[in-house]
From TrEMBL:
Protein name: Flagella basal body P-ring formation protein FlgA
Keyword flag Transcription: no
Similarity remark: Belongs to the FlgA family.
Pfam families recorded: ChapFlgA
Domain SAF: 18-76
Keywords annotated in UniProt: Bacterial flagellum biogenesis, Cell projection, Cilium, Flagellum, Periplasm, Signal
Role noted for this protein: Involved in the assembly process of the P-ring formation. It may associate with FlgF on the rod constituting a structure essential for the P-ring assembly or may act as a modulator protein for the P-ring assembly.
Keyword Signal among UniProt keywords: yes
NCBIfam families, alphabetized: flgA_cterm
Protein localization: Periplasm
Organism phylogeny: Bacteria, Pseudomonadati, Pseudomonadota, Alphaproteobacteria, Rhodobacterales
Gene Ontology BP annotations: bacterial-type flagellum assembly
GO cellular component: periplasmic space
Length: 139
């Protein structure tokens, strides 16, 4: 009997309210989102963000237009390194640590694998962006 009463109470309240994060203005590619760029609308859109805290501080991968839902694939971690930026290249193996000046050939966030060029030898390498802004290259 108690189970039936709980079911009737649940059905009488209607569906649970869901929220979707929407863009308030045009968000350009590579723009970092702020609280002024988004709003919360009632209703659920599959594949869209529902928590504004997941969106603020993220970078748009492509343009998002006003009134559109902010979809999960539209955002990424903000890039720490831009294309053509001077970076420190670091190679570590065992107790050996070699650092050299390099140039980024692509953009990347922490943990991304990007192409870099050693400034001295002009050799193109791949490396992983470190939290301090350097690029860790491996053999």
């Amino acid at each position: 009997m108690r189970g039936l009463a709980a079911l009737c109470l649940f059905l009488s309240t209607g569906p649970l309210a869901a929220e979707t994060v929407m863009a308030t203005r045009t968000i350009r590619p590579q723009q970092v989102l702020t609280a002024e760029d988004i709003r919360i609308d009632q209703g659920r859109i599959e594949g869209a963000f529902s928590d504004p805290m997941e969106v603020i501080g993220m970078e748009a991968r492509f343009a998002i237009y006003p009134g559109r839902a902010v979809m999960r694939g539209a955002l990424a971690e903000p890039a720490l390194i831009d294309r053509n930026q001077a970076v420190e290249l670091v190679f570590e193996h065992g107790g050996l640590r070699i650092a050299a000046e390099g140039r980024a050939l692509g953009r990347g966030a922490v943990g991304d694998r990007i192409r870099v060029m050693n400034e001295t030898s002009r050799t193109v390498l791949f490396g992983t962006v470190a939290p301090n802004g350097s690029v860790v290259v491996s053999k």
